[in-house]
């Protein structure tokens, strides 16, 4: 089997050094990588480094090996082009079809999936010109990952940091796995909730659940790899941020509701995969509740939390918005799932059986996707990434 051919484009940002780690992950996992750095990128990492790490000469000049027509052939022969870091200048050129060096020529001739991993200062990322260029690239089918938040050059912090190389690699791996189908969510905004809410009883105790957030994070990561702009509402999940995903952290059900109602305003798809507490303590005790010998603790009164899924389903923020719910059941799984689908009013409900050695905290999952139109799709036990892709397959078919 021929090794996947990947072009790693590197533009001139300080984050260019991080592309060395991405290159190492690509080569060590069996990919044949051609590095195409811009002239500015070579000021940060030299040609010898790229050649040593890739095991191949770095392609730096349009006028080298002219008989091989490198400005055409490199893009034509690739299975994937990933640009990391992608500067504001590089994306502006790509959006406007400029081709003044080997990398921009490669982008024009590529007929494979293209992934941009932006890195720049916050003000540059948020500038209307950059946002319009990003929108143009996404509209044409390119996958533009959202930058991460964190430390930038110097003392600055904010949104604009290159996503971690490990997460960029995972995004590339998912894109290559899907081939020509990789971009079926391009131009869509999806909102995914993940993890489990916690309802505080006192400063050290809470009512919670066993959800790790792995399934929701898999849904967010696969959606980003399929071209979507993704907002992930993360409830107490201790997992690395997926590359290209805008992560909003929440803790309680009320916080999740507020964040969800804000995020879904312009969303095409809403997937509520988080395990949301049905109840919360009626009273929060400001000091730690003490144990007193010989005295039984007072009963904990509970009040009902809002039903976020039902609320979003009943009041769609925009016409045609698709809403997907999750149901964790311990018995009568399908019967309870069908009843919940009707009660919640969503378009799809992913029903899975939970319990000891099932679903929670594991890397695998099995489920049945129930649809409001009566369709029923059984997804066998396997990696949670596979279940995520199966859910997005159902969503993408309905969006079409």
Automatic annotation (TrEMBL):
Pfam families noted in UniProt: DFP (PF04127), Flavoprotein (PF02441)
Lyase in keyword set: yes
Annotated positions binding CTP: 278, 288, 306-309, 326, 340, 344
InterPro entries found in the cross-reference section: CoaB-like_sf, CoaBC, DNA/pantothenate-metab_flavo_C, Flavin_trans-like, Flavoprotein
Assigned keywords, A-Z: Decarboxylase, Flavoprotein, FMN, Ligase, Lyase, Magnesium, Metal-binding, Multifunctional enzyme
Domain (DNA/pantothenate metabolism flavoprotein C-terminal) ranges: 185-397
Flavoprotein domain segment(s): 5-174
Cofactor note: Binds 1 FMN per subunit.
Pathway stated in the Swiss-Prot or TrEMBL entry: Cofactor biosynthesis; coenzyme A biosynthesis; CoA from (R)-pantothenate: step 2/5; Cofactor biosynthesis; coenzyme A biosynthesis; CoA from (R)-pantothenate: step 3/5
Stretches the record annotates as Phosphopantothenoylcysteine decarboxylase: 1-189
Catalytic activity, as annotated: (R)-4'-phosphopantothenate + L-cysteine + CTP = N-[(R)-4-phosphopantothenoyl]-L-cysteine + CMP + diphosphate + H(+); N-[(R)-4-phosphopantothenoyl]-L-cysteine + H(+) = (R)-4'-phosphopantetheine + CO2
Function: Catalyzes two sequential steps in the biosynthesis of coenzyme A. In the first step cysteine is conjugated to 4'-phosphopantothenate to form 4-phosphopantothenoylcysteine. In the second step the latter compound is decarboxylated to form 4'-phosphopantotheine.
Protein name: Coenzyme A biosynthesis bifunctional protein CoaBC
